[in-house]
């Protein structure tokens, strides 16, 4: 089954109303390959979600950067999956390494969040990735397999899941994984899905790469057979995000 190229822009904790308006206006004016070729999702901070959702061109979609692990209630400061659905926000990013590291989100907690968000009808970008220390000690695959297992153990339907491989050492560092490094892990992850979840799911699930992706390095990464798109941080706030979206055309040949 063909995997449609996916480009997500994770704006993280950035932006003022004016800046957000400017980014969306720019995105609304650019020419990019059609929705049949590339799926584009941008993820502003919670407070701008509705604003962006109402202003953004209809062929691009919006994602929240997180949501609560279960049904809403007495959880001060949290945003529930039900609220996102209520606001017509179709996507949510779950398990980003910044949350795993800074807010102590465990593999189990991330797995529960993914399952709950899916159960409410959200589509999920589930993030995994190893630290530099883990890579250097040779445990990259063990780490990402454990992260994926915690998700796979709780997910029955993978149709609405995109797996984002984001090595922590490449995030915000300018130290992008080489195309060979990215392909190696993506290929292993697909193999893991094949062996532990199923052949069809392994073949159809998009595995996207994140970590210092920019306009200059995106094409070579996109050309790798198991790289199905990107989750972009810093460069998603800049005009070069459009070049990254256009990298989708690399796959057509
Ligand atoms: O964390 C990321 C996307 O979720 C990647 O961030 P950068 O593209 O800024 O390295």
From TrEMBL:
One of its GO terms (molecular function) is triose-phosphate isomerase activity. CDD domains: TIM. This is Triosephosphate isomerase. It comes from the Eukaryota. It holds the Pfam family TIM. Pathway: Carbohydrate biosynthesis. Keywords: Isomerase. GO terms for biological process: gluconeogenesis; glyceraldehyde-3-phosphate biosynthetic process; glycerol catabolic process; glycolytic process. GO terms for cellular component: cytosol. It comes from Gossypium stocksii. InterPro entries: Aldolase_TIM (IPR013785), TIM_sf (IPR035990), TrioseP_Isoase_bac/euk (IPR022896), Triosephosphate_isomerase (IPR000652), Triosephosphate_isomerase_AS (IPR020861). Homodimer. Belongs to the triosephosphate isomerase family.
């Amino acid at each position: 089954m063909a995997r449609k190229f996916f480009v997500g822009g994770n704006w993280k904790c950035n932006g003022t109303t004016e800046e957000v308006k400017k980014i969306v206006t720019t995105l609304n004016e650019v020419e990019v390959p059609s929705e049949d070729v590339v799926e584009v999702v941008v993820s502003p901070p919670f407070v701008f979600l509705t604003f962006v959702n109402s202003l953004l061109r209809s062929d691009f979609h919006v994602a929240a950067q997180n949501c609560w692990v279960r049904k809403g209630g007495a959880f001060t400061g949290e945003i529930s999956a039900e609220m996102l659905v209520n606001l017509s926000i179709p996507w949510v990013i779950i398990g980003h390494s910044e949350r795993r590291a800074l807010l102590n989100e465990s593999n189990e907690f991330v797995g529960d969040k993914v399952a709950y968000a899916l159960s409410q009808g959200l589509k999920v970008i589930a993030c995994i990735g190893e630290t530099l220390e883990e890579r250097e000690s040779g445990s990259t695959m063990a780490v990402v397999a454990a992260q994926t297992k915690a998700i796979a153990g709780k997910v029955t339907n993978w149709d609405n899941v995109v797996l984002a491989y984001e090595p922590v050492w490449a995030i915000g560092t300018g130290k992008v994984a080489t195309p060979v490094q990215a392909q190696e892990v993506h290929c292993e992850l697909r193999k893991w899905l094949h062996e532990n979840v199923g052949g069809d799911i392994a073949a159809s699930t998009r595995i996207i790469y994140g970590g210092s992706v920019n306009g200059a390095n995106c094409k070579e990464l996109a050309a790798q057979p198991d790289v199905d798109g990107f989750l972009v941080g810093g460069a998603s706030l800049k005009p070069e995000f459009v070049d990254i979206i256009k990298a989708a055309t690399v796959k057509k040949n």
